[in-house]
Amino acid sequence: MRLSPLLVIVLLGLLTAVAGLQAQDKPQDLILGKWDPVDEKGKSTVEFLKDGKLRISAQQLTLEGSYKFLDDKTIETRVIFAGKEEKGLKLAIKVTKDELVTTHLEGTKTEQRFTRHKD
Question: Can you give the pTM of this predicted structure?
Fold first, then answer.
């Protein structure tokens, strides 16, 4: 069976598009940006930066910190408070283009929902 050059080009284009979509759906990419807690709309934001930095802003207070993925469904966060890095917090995450859900893995299994911040 011989494939026409046009069919080969179309198939290569589809494969490239599918590979691109899969790369964009990685939690490490989806989590980037600012998020608003659903239960505190407009009062605070959480921002995940590409370099593993974390910024939490609430009213006039901004905390800096870091995050790292332990796997595709778990992150560990650390926040600097009063010049001291606090103990890491492990969170289970579910993230889509528009929604982030975190669940504390230690202590009470508190779930928190976020929506992507719209400037």
Answer: 0.76
